[in-house]
Amino acid sequence: xxxxxxxxxxxxxxxxxxxxxxxxxxxxxxxxYRLLRSEDEFWKPWFxxxxxxxxxxxxxxxxxxxxxxxxxAAEGQGIALARTSLLGSDLRNGVLVRLFDVxxxxxxxxxxxxxxxxxxxxxxxxxxxxxHDEIELDRSLATPIAPRSVRRSKAKAGx
Length: 159
Description:
Number of helices: 4
Strand content: 15-25%
Oligomer: single chain
Mean pLDDT: 82
CATH topology: D-Maltodextrin-Binding Protein, domain 2
Order of helices and strands: EEEHEHEHEEEH
C-alpha cells in the first residue's frame, strides 16, 4: 500500500468472495440459475476453485456497484458472487444465505491508513483491535448454513 511521507498503513482485511442467494434451495445446479455479475469481480476464479471448467458468464445483469449486486441477490434476482465485507448483516439477519463452502480471495484489499506519528499510540491500537474484531465477526458469520458441494454439471452457466 503506497502512503505519503507522513502516513503509515496496515492491511485490515482478508476479504473473500463466495456465492450467496436469498434461498439455499437455489443450489441444485448453478447452471440453472441467473448469475449476477460485477464489472470488477469475476466468476471464473470461483468456478476454478470449485472445480468447474466454466468460462466467465456472458449473460445476465452486470452491476457497477457491489452493493447493488448484493441488493439484487436479496431481492431474488439471482445468485451473487459477493465479498464477506459487504455481507455481514445480510447473512446475520438471514436476508441472504451462503450457498457453498468454496471461497476465493477477493480481488481488492483494504488498508487502514493513519498518520505515522500515531503508529504507537494507545488510541490507534484500540481502534485497530476493534476494526480487526469487527472484520473477524463478519467472517465468522459468513459460514454456510449447511455446507454443500458444487454439482459439476456439464452445462456451463451463463454461456
